[in-house]
Amino acid sequence: MEAASRGALVGWVDEYPRPVELFGLPLRQWVDTSLVLAEHRTLAALGPLARPFADGELFGDDWRRVFQEPSPLSENYRAYLKTYFFGERIDREFEHAWYAQEPVTGGNFETFKDKLRCTFCEHLLSARARARRIPLVDIRPQPLAIDPFDAVAGSVSVRLSETLPCRR
User: Fold this and answer.
1) What is the greatest pairwise CA distance in the chain?
2) 135 phi/psi in degrees, rounded to 5
3) Domain count within the chain
C-alpha cells in the first residue's frame, strides 16, 4: 500500500472517545495489530516493539483492585479497559465490549493481566508512532478521521528516549 511506503502505519484504526495517557504518552486512536502494514524502517523507528515491565507498577496485588494506584495509566484509560474487558460500565461514552468480556475474578485475573499486557503493546505502538509523527492510516470501508498530531498531545510532555514497557 502506498501509505505504508511513505512511512505510515496502515491498518484498522480504533479509537476512544477522549484521549488517554499510558506511560506518559497520549493516545486516542490506534492501529489494531491483528493486521499492520508498515515498512521495515517505520517499525525499526518504533522498536524495540516489546519491552518488559514490572507488574507491581501496573497491577494491584489482588484481583479486586485490577490496577495499581498511582498508575502510569490515566484514570479514563483504566475505565475504558475495565468497560471493554470486564463489562464495568464506568464511562457511558465508551460502551464497547471484547468478544470474551467477563467480570474479573481470582480465577481469571492472571489471564486478564496477560491480555492487558498485549493491549498495552498494541496501544504503545500507535502512541509511539504518533509521538514520532508517524501517520496512522485506517483501512476500514468508511475510514475514521485521524486526529491531527497536536490534537492529542495537548500539554502532555513526551520523552521519546524513555523505555516503554510492553510485556512481562
Assistant:
1) 47
2) -70, 150
3) 1
**Grid coordinates in use for 75?**
484514570
Domain range for residue 139? 2-153
pLDDT at position 95 = 87
Q: Examine residue 167 and state whether it is found in any structural domain, yes or no.
A: no
Q: How many Å apart are CA 124 and CA 128, to the nearest integer?
A: 6
Domain-embedded: residue 163: no
Which grid cell sits at 112? 486478564
For residue 156, pLDDT beyond 50 = no
- Alpha-carbon gap, residue 38 to 1, rounded angstroms: 9
Quick check: pTM over 0.70? yes
Is residue 159 domain-resident? no
Calculate the alpha carbon distances from 67 to 94, 138, 155 in Å: 19, 31, 24
Amino acid type, 144: L
